[in-house]
Amino acid sequence: MRPFHLHRLRPPHALPHRHYSTQPPAIGIAPLPSRTTLSLTGPDTAKFLHGLCTSTLLETTGGYTAFLTAPGRIITDAFVFPRLIDGQYSAVIDVDAALADTLASHLRKHKLRSKIAFARGGWSVWATWGPGLALPTDTPTLLDPRLPALGARMLLPPGAEPALSLRHASEKDYTLSTLQHGLPPSSILPGLLPHEANLDHLSAIDFRKGCYVGQELTIRTQHTGVVRKRLLPVQLYRAGETPPEDLAYQPEFDAGGVEAGTDIVALGGGKRPAGRWLFGMGNVGLALCRLENMSDLRVSAEGGSWTPGDEFALKGSDLRVKAFVPDWLRERETARQRSKAERKAVDTQ
């Protein structure tokens, strides 16, 4: 079978490994049964959410956000839909079902005397992807702000289907469609720092907003820290094969069940792992990579050890790993480094 070439990514000059037998459509719509909803109602809803989430959620548009622990690590990411009930702002949080109880516990811990009420479920979550899609106006809809190609999220009553003339696909198709852009499923995010998960480049963090839980480390990392590790899309290939030049999904590739958390090591390199495998489908996946070891991105003054021709492998396996830097990440990280350098120059004048 010929490999299906995904969104082209510039080469850099957890969970069980899953197999998918079909290619995702370029444009589609899919139900997301792995997602559930948490609804917040009451006069203090807006103020309450503002103090817990990383982004500024406008009462008219909602958005993409994250909830953090006090030390600044991710509990989960989420999409927040604004709703008006009897003229009063309320919110519906679209969250990974496996993380919903953890998020609900986090919210209740901080409720104190806030006049809000919680409810779980009541909606099914759908997602569209692809360019130039018409969106429904008769159901809660939220444009996915992470990347333009990702389309929108929708809430529908359980059992209902959106009235859109698009090919109905599966949640597996949607997951692969997001993976081709280097975006992770929510399930691999808990415990990561927001910058490691690229949330700083995906409209999930407002660095100008006031205090929220986990803000201190997040702000310090943005303005003074060096982000050495980030999630990158990766491709597996076998020892002796030519390293891939472009990320290309091969559903028939048998990776033999790569476990989440498996270290990625440099062939002939030092003892310290260069990355950690987190998620995979067929021969492609996501790994937390040391940027200056596994790619040509430079994030520090001293630079890194990567050189063209370097090869990496899953520890204890003959499978090789090639990391790719998505164009959007390269562009946004370059802009971040430039902004930091300009601020530093101003501070030293």
UniProtKB/TrEMBL annotation:
Keyword Transferase (UniProt): yes
Q: Per the database record, which ranges form the CAF17 C-terminal domain? A: 228-330
GO MF term set: methyltransferase activity
> Does Transferase show up as a keyword for this record?
yes
Q: Name one GO cellular component term.
A: mitochondrial matrix
The UniProt keywords, alphabetically, are:
Methyltransferase, Mitochondrion, Transferase, Transit peptide
**GO terms of biological process kind:** iron-sulfur cluster assembly; methylation
Subcellular localization is given as:
Mitochondrion matrix
NCBIfam families reported for this sequence: ygfZ_signature
What family is this protein classified in? Belongs to the GcvT family. CAF17/IBA57 subfamily.
List the protein's name.
Answer: Iron-sulfur cluster assembly factor IBA57 homolog, mitochondrial
